[in-house]
Amino acid sequence: MTLPLFFFYVFSTIAVISALMVISSRNPVHSVLFLILCFVNSAGIFMLAGAEFLALILIVVYVGAVAVLFLFVVMMLDVDFAGLRHGMLQYAPIGVIVGLILLVELLLVAGGFAIAPDIASSSVVPINPGIDNTRALGQVLYTRYVFVFQGAGAVLLVAMIGAIVLTLRHKQGVKRQDAGVQANRRVEDAMEVVKVKSGEGLRG
Amino acid sequence: MTSDLLSFSALAPAYPEMVLAIGTVVLLLVGVLAKRDQYRAIAIAGVVLLAAVALLILFQPADGVLFNGAFIGDGFARYMKVLVLGGSAFALILALPSAAENGLDKFEYAILVLLATLGMMMMVSANDLMSLYVGLELQSLALYVVAAIHRENAKATEAGLKFFVLGALSSGMLLYGASLVYGFTGHTQLDEIAKVLIYGERSIGLVFGLVFLLAGLAFKLSAVPFHMWTPDVYEGAPTPVTAFFASAPKVAAMALTIRVVMESFAPVTHDWQQIIIFLSIASMVLAAFAAIGQKNLKRLIAYSSIGHVGFALVGLSSGTEIGVEGVAIYMAIYVTMTISLFACILSLKTETGYVETVDELAGLAQTRPFVAAMMAVLMFSLVGLPPLAGFFAKWHVFLAAIQANLFALAVIGVLASAVSAFYYLRVVKTMYFDAPVLRFAAVPGELNTIMAITGFFIVTYYVTVGAPLANFAHNAAGSLF
Fold this sequence. Notes:
The complex is a heterodimer of chains A (204) and B (481). With 204 residues, chain A is an all-alpha fold. Chain A has a domain at 1-80: Four Helix Bundle (Hemerythrin (Met), subunit A) (Up-down Bundle), CATH 1.20.120.1200. Chain A is 71% helix and 0% strand. The longest helix of chain B is centred in the middle third of the chain and has 32 residues, at 154-185. Chain B is mainly alpha-helical and 481 residues long.
């Protein structure tokens, strides 16, 4: 067994096991930590495949940002995840049976499985070993795939609008600071000079 | 690395999408920067934008493959895009009179509908599995948000959540299928896939990919057995949103299905034909029987739309040019009937709110004769009685099935149509022969106009729009073969 193959099996085994732990561990914080482990191992697999840019992006974006965000959400929301998951183990046997049947079917298919053999060489964007990943992606992202790239941008715009529409609430009666109003206040509006006669005080 | 971005005129086939995208972003900025929520002005501007894009498509047609094969502009895409734009524009107008009651008095509603329409146009013009997926996701994501936009309403929120979870699942199936197809053919571009399939032999893995791909698409079409979400989402979402769901997205999903099976998988027609025939029969039969027990009007329409998708798929299962032509005509008539039906429902406002159940329509013929007559015409048209438009829609698809020797399918379709007559005519019976119980508020002017226009075309279909529409559909189908 060659060294890359050995590492491939190590990474993929840990990834699969930690993915299983994500959905089966009782504590949601543990689930998120296993998710991070799963991401890191997937990044290792990318690295083995020579896609170092994707590997690092996976760690920076998913582990660094998304998973930490998940962790915050899980810790801040007081959701009874254990209760939610209570029914799952009850239904798990049926799920396992269905999954097994699908797996057997897929294995049957795998008997005739042959990924198009010349896929790497006939690819529309052939891999050039002389160029590093980041440069290669940059060369196609804004040229060849500009349509899909812009479409993905529109998807993110929808996600942003959707998040704001569904969650933002303008509370009535909350005092907010408005710098414009503050700066536009004149002395005449804010102050009143009152002559107070001695011995009478202020009325009204 | 070639790029189409070097010259602006080379992008002519994609002008409509660019105009819509830029216009939507401008409207979004206007909406955000405006002092108060100008939802009405933004919605009307959105309708104008959609109409402008439709006119651009109709009068400045440009064909061609762009962006290294990711995008295709042809007669078929133009036909379907005009339908999508029309459906979205009318859905926006339908939402205006009852915006406040349905929680749609936010400018984001119009923006999201416009972005969903952009996604649908990308779906219709997709020529690559990647652009297909991005367009589909753009559309779906906007629809999930729109379903839940009335967030004070528990039912709408539930509808949105249900739609989102099941939609994400179906997207996963579609992606899995797409990855298998890519793995077995080595291409993501639809016409390149077809080229590989003509020369190479068909592997079982490819058929697996095809099945998963079609399962994902059938979910978006709400064809049985992937229809479970439809009645719940249609019932839970605000009625104008339901009107939108039932019209434009169906056209886009149908156009996408047609393009995928006709362009990529034409060499393995026999394989997908079985799947489409199954989806078609299951949708027609299940919808015909399941709708009988429905009391809620929106659930009834949901099952009716499932049934109509089944009928449209009859045309597609023939796998011929005349079949695609039939589906194109069917979708045009289906969208018109759907918009008209929702205009009727949204015009019936009582003291307690909008009409929700069939029983509330009792005696409508006495209280609101025009709306009742309109609805009766629509019900007869949905059943498929001549000389109304619905009859010709079904006639075209059944004709295609018979010419392709699918006699059993055509017979089952006609029988399902006869069964469905029961629940459509029950609505007519409730309106005309039951005693009135509710009093209705005056009908808003824009709804009356929509009802009158669509009703005119449905009744006089054969003498007015029938021949030109068939001509357009013929050209559209011709561009695929």
